Amino acid sequence: MRRAAAARAVGGDAVLIDRFLEMLAAEGGAARNTIIAYGTDLRAASAMLSGKLCEAGRDEIETLGESWLKLASSSAARKSSVLRRFFGFLAEEGFRADDPSTALPRPQLGRPLPKVLTHADVDALFAELERRRAALASPQTLRLIALVELLYGSGLRATELVSLPRNALRPDEPFMILRGKGGRERLVPISERARAAVQDWLAHVPAAAAFLFPSGKKHLSRVRLFQLIKALAADAGIAPERISPHVLRHAFATHLLEGGADLRALQTLLGHADIATTQIYTHVDSRRLVELVNARHPLVDLTAPSA
């Protein structure tokens, strides 16, 4: 068959998978972790088909999809999505004339609601940080204050936060330019509190350090950040399972929305490529939105009974 001959002509699955991943990196701007995950899924699928994924027909692809039904819906959906993109690449590059990925399952996914911290929870976290500062303003305490101020005050992702360069924040500028997920740049506002906290911490960071939060030869790890936030929550009287660096990012978005921020502004602040990702936060403030319509809509006055 032509598809088999074309795939074999360039070296089979391994070579074409590598070409696909190179395309994602060069043209799609995919993040390194995304490329690694795609490669893992594709090589596993190739192994299940004895190295003949690129040559597979609908029957083989359907069998492959059925083997994923025992997985969580999110995992099956991810694997199906990766294969659809891969077969789309093969068709575009002329290695196949057909696309068998239509035989893959399409698990129905409900987008999970983010965990939400109340204003009281956040107040408790900062009260515990102030208690620690008053007891002993150690470098470790100052570092933790800077980390939490940036997580909650600017909505940074954990990876973005721990990998910030030492000079990422300038004392005289209330914002910074950040290259985030997918290599996209965005403008990140920095509160006066966060800038002050970072300045306090910078006094303990060597001038030659490459990162704002150095650790050994690299930067603070995401795992260590996770541990620090959990420990802080426990001391503040918050169940550790309710919190993580990402939950603080959610709190940033949730509380901004409650304060009147619109979704487009929130999308920009969070660095979401798609507004649909940001719309998940609308569940947290539906009551306020209903009250806003009832109070501010121009037709409200027309519904009032005439005297």
Tell me what you see in this structure.
With 307 residues, the chain is mostly helical. It folds into 2 domains: 2-103, Tyrosine recombinase, N-terminal domain (DNA polymerase, domain 1, Orthogonal Bundle), CATH 1.10.150.130; 119-292, Orthogonal Bundle (hpI Integrase, Chain A), CATH 1.10.443. Helices cover 55% and strands 5% of the residues. It has helices spanning 2-9, 13-28, 32-48, 58-66, 73-92, 119-135, 139-154, 158-162, 192-202, 222-235, 245-258, 263-270, 275-278, 286-296; strands spanning 175-179, 185-189, 214-215, 218-219. The protein has a two-stranded antiparallel sheet. The protein has a two-stranded antiparallel ribbon with strand order 3-4. Strand 1 and strand 2 form a beta hairpin. The longest helix has 20 residues, at 73-92. The chain is elongated, with a radius of gyration of 25 Å.
